[in-house]
TrEMBL record:
The entry's keywords: Methyltransferase, Transferase
Alphabetical list of SMART domains matching this protein: MeTrc (SM00138)
Species the sequence originates in: Massilia jejuensis
Molecular function GO terms recorded: methyltransferase activity
Record-annotated CheR-type methyltransferase domain positions: 9-253
Lineage: superkingdom: Bacteria
Protein name: CheR family methyltransferase
Amino acid sequence: MAALTAFAAFASSQAIEELEIDLLLEALTQRHGYDFRDYDRQLVRRKLLGVMAERELKTVSALQERVLHEPGAASSVLRALAVNPAALFQDPVRAREAREVLGKSLRPVAVPKVWLAECTGVGDAWTLAILLHEEGLLARTEIFATLANDEVLAEVRDADIDAQLLPALQEHYLQSGGSGRLADYFELREGRATLLARLRGRITWAGYNLVTDASFNEFQAIICCRALADFGPMLRQRVLRLFNDSLARFGVLGIDRELAPGDAYAAAYQPLLENLPWYRRVG
């Protein structure tokens, strides 16, 4: 009996916490315009519990009270729920794959457009710009890097990195297929490093919400790896349909994992690398 009572109390506590999360996410949607309701719920829960621990809060309702009434609280929660920023050449294997796939696929296109959907910061965009430059494509390629969070978007437009990081990142750059010196792609000033203006100028930063916005252009390549992994099943299918609406025929799609047979428009894509989530739209 005691065990059943304890289990019932635990189940009730979990149900209340789920309701609190629902209300908090609804508040973020209604008050601030950022919709995380269809993100992977367990991931959202872990991130919210992390914010609560930092603020020494015992309930999600207490966090919601801060979000609604305390200046800056909503911003910190939105940042916590967003995808963590990627460092420059953070994933050299993935960068090598992008170099191989995009180098071949974009070369015949006169003016390729590449969409970094829900881009994970300047590290993500600058990595792509460097590898496209080394493939001889950047000068005629337009990179559209979009983010839903306006505050983060304002920061990345004028971002720089610690110049002392560049030597440590050189090895990752080489592992990605680079053959030069990573630091040569940066302007250095007072210990900070910024991507060269001629490379940076090929990147257009824009606000865009994958959850609510419609297709806004036709692209020869769409890349969305880290953000797509955070989405729940329904939102994932919605975004895959959006990408299909936005991708030119024979365009390249790079995502977080291989397409499943039941994924939206899965039959319209042909794998480009064996057992890796890079595809060409053929349907």
